[in-house]
Amino acid sequence: MAIEKNFEMNHLLLVSLGGAIGAGLRFMVGNVAIRFFGVSFPWATLIVNVAGSLLMGILIGVLVRRTGTPNEVRIFLATGLLGGFTTFSAFSLDAINLWQRGESTIAAGYVLASVILSLFALFVGLIIVRSIV
Prior knowledge:
This protein is mostly helical. It has a domain at 2-86. The protein contains 5 helices and no strands. It has helices spanning 2-37, 43-65, 71-85, 88-100, 104-132. The termini are far apart. The mean pLDDT is 90.
């Protein structure tokens, strides 16, 4: 039991460290994008989402081909660093995994549900705050 808890704690620390680095990188990329492109369009978010998805594809592609890579590398880089950089990369990976398994209808449903429900949830959150404040 103690070994299992230490193992989970080590993974949590790897995700946390990677997430902190990824969030810092997202902040830096966002600032650079705003300086170059301004704020009239959410370029920073678009750049981070596309770059994060590209990096996730490269990372997973490399990890799949390399046997023997410790699981901690994936946890730190994919879940931590890229998850902190953009959760859109994880969303993209999930959608593509469903599609590659031949579950294209489920993949499409997942994409639509994620986008529509997330937009709806954000809208509801705004309504809640506006009604309270």
